[in-house]
Amino acid sequence: MFSDRQMEVTDKAVDEIAVFVEYYTDPLCSWSWAFEAQWRRLRYECGQRLDWRYRMGGLIADWRSYEDPLNDIRFPGQMGSQWFQIRELTGMPLDTHIWQEDPPSSSYPACIAVKAAQRQGQAEAEMYLRRLREAVMMERRNIARQDVLLAIAGETAEDSNLDLDRFRKDLSAPETLDAFRQDLRDAGYYNIGRFPTLLLHSTNGHGLILVGYRPYELLCEAVEHLTPGLRQRVQQPPEELAVVYVTRWGHVTARELAEVMNSAVERLSPLLNSLIERGLLAYDRTFQREVPIYAPAPRN
Question: Which fold has domain 238-296?
Fold first, then answer.
């Protein structure tokens, strides 16, 4: 059963929720970025019966203390090769140039910024965390810098209910830092050292932990084990599904569309190009990216 602390942060009615997920992650975690394709599909197919809360894991306090012996990474310049491998393995776009041009010195500022957004609600935290990921993974923006964190908050506020003035105050508020420290303590309690890590709780009192990047089939097995029938398979024509899915999330990569449509990215290109040409989808051209990102078509 959910604890009081788990349930107090949900935006949904308690009687609708069948599975609650505590998602330990970090805005600078490339594996969590790659996992967006599966994570978004799961939430789309489970609808209101799945609820979640993001917990910040603090991937990199600083480069003096950071060490990843499994991947032989001790310096910022070595991170680019791992991002390249993740991009090739998962198909999610990752721009490795940031690690040569302007490498982030820590992930802690971005973690704290997510907690500041979370003080305004889970929807605001969701949108802000996504924009942080896009900014660092696709746009070469250094999310360790406060000016970048504030700029991304401004961008998020344009498409959400995020109160920018409150965000600025909460960014340096003691309560925000305490919330991040609590996330770190809880991650230590559960011995969580890899991201993404999902703690799944069902209303019948059962739970399980998924550690690391996982294909969608294994994610489905986990939720079906906890609550059979939780997920509803999508039955929509490809064109309709693509438009509805992009509208649901706002910004979507081709890899994410390929996941929900059970297709290869290459096979989707003609469909997506047709939807762009017919004005049903659009490219988001706000920032220069090596790989396009899809957005809803502008309203006339």
Answer: Arc Repressor Mutant, subunit A (1.10.10)
